[in-house]
Amino acid sequence: MSLPVLLDFLAKASYFVAAFLFIIGLMQMGSPVTARRGIRWAGVGMVIAVVVTFFAPATWGGPGIDPLNLGLMAVAIAISGVFWLWGKRVPITDMPQMVAIFNGMGGGSAAAIGAVALLNAATFKGACTAEAMAAHACLDTTKLVLAVLGSLIGAVAFSGSVIAWAKLDGHLDRTFRFPGQQAVNLLVFVAALGLGGFLLYQLDVPVIIAFFLLALVFGVLMTLPIGGADMPVVISLYNAFTGLAVAFKGYVLGNEALIIAGTVVGAAGLLLTQLMARAMNRPIRNVLFSHFGGGGAGAQEIAGSQKPIEAADAAAMMAYAERVVIVPGYGMAVAQAQHKIWELSRLLIERGVKVKFAIHPVAGRMPGHMNVLLAEAGVPYDLIADMDDINPEFPNTDVSLVIGANDVVNPVAKTDPSSPIYGMPILDVASSKNIIVIKRGKGTGFAGIENALFYADNTRMLYGDGAEVANRLVAELKALDGGH
């Protein structure tokens, strides 16, 4: 076996090992208990893939290592190191927007690979010379189709994720809608598809540029009208897009690691998107081509009034309860109250109170957002229950403490067909014996409607910043125990 053949075999074997580690890592990320280990295994796989790719030109039997390519890869690795340092300093509350922008970079990378492949193919005019092979410009019909599709999907995922990041980070604090918006979006998408189809027959540089511009514009237009409540679904969907685009580019480049990793990420992203949409009882097309809420026009009026409670009374109510369920939402993340809430929970547990945390699938701004916050605070995994498991327990719960959650506990989702959230599965907090809601003010949730739970006879409102209120509750509990 010649040295180039041996090196090529070792490179492909290394890519296979990397892909295997990606799959193992993704499987372990399915449980909070093994998620950290999964991240490490996937990280090892990525290191292997990067190192092999860095030296891959020498193993392909081509002209050797291209200094320009090595320089570009070195710059990319250096930039990724900067982002790694930035990621370590990002507050846990900013994790959704960081995930969105990093996911966008994956889609952008896939689109950039597609752009290079198409431009190289246009440069060589289909002539499959040795130089064209070295530049991966020999695109047969299948590779050309996948290059175009992968570029379209990757570009949409990139620009759409940038808009999602801007919305989550507060740079775009409203949705943008105008008459005929969906028709305009459809025209832009059809135009991009048309140019992509034209590239299958004739590769012209101006057409390639126009194709990418339209794909990027479509990603922006598609994401602008989508509201904050739908962002978990959108982030998951764009993650699936990125994985699919990466898999297509892996086939174009003949890179097994990209094919396997992209396919796994794409499939996982699609499954998660379906689960998130099902948790909101909304089809994905409704998320993309409609909007959540809209002021609740036509919704039934809510009778009663919000009844306040003082921290001392709320603490006493929980201290002498048998079962307490804590329901966190995005408001807890904004207030950075997760550590104080866990301190409060520990004090209750020490008094013999049975405490659990109830998590709605779309609570927060990204899939698993509340789980990440609670894990950061040190909450044991066995105290965290998902919606389906905890709902039957609410009727036997003495006190439910809601902090920062709104639409996901609104009972009109079950009782008012005219409500914009009607049919959305919710946490059945309303069936608890007593409910305490920590809330900064009297504002509405993402859906723009009043929460009937806040007006219920068994609900009391504890107004104030989440962290400050939790701190007062902790102090009151300690006072009940004589300051210990």
Automatic annotation (TrEMBL):
It is a multi-pass membrane protein. The chain crosses the membrane at residues 6-26, 38-56, 68-87, 99-124, 144-163, 183-201, 207-226, 258-277. Keywords: Cell inner membrane, Cell membrane, Membrane, NAD, NADP, Oxidoreductase, Translocase, Transmembrane, Transmembrane helix. It catalyses: NAD(+) + NADPH + H(+)(in) = NADH + NADP(+) + H(+)(out). Its EC number is 7.1.1.1. It is found in: Cell inner membrane. Residues 12-475 form the NADP transhydrogenase beta-like domain. GO terms for molecular function: NADP binding; oxidoreductase activity; proton-translocating NAD(P)+ transhydrogenase activity. GO terms for cellular component: plasma membrane. Its main location: membrane. Heterodimer of an alpha and a beta chain. The transhydrogenation between NADH and NADP is coupled to respiration and ATP hydrolysis and functions as a proton pump across the membrane. Belongs to the PNT beta subunit family. This is NAD(P) transhydrogenase subunit beta.
